[in-house]
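Apologies for my clumsy wording, but can you show me some protein sequence, whichever is easiest, together with the matching structure tokens, please?
=====
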Amino acid sequence: METKVWDPVDHLRSDEAIAEYITAALEDGDPQFIAACLGDVARARGMATVAKDAGLSRESLYRSLSAEGNPSLGTIVRVAKALGIKLVAQTDKAA
């Protein structure tokens, strides 16, 4: 049996897919997972372009948005803005 590595970047082609992906990451609540998902979206959009638009170096962006990264909230906000993603808060009816 032959297998292929699954890369979420291959499925992040539309704004709707990206919004659903980031929403699911935010609902999960794991900060490192959220950062890694933003990194996937940045790779899908072009890491160098996103880094420039966010005012960061490409290397710094890769490092911050890796699974091991720990970006500041400021970095998350700048990257979200560069990606055209609006982070929104809503009440948790289950809480």
Remarks:
- The mean pLDDT is 92.
- Helices lie at 15-28, 31-45, 47-54, 58-64, 73-83.
- The first helix runs from residue 15 to 28.
- Residues 2 and 31 are 33 Å apart (CA to CA).
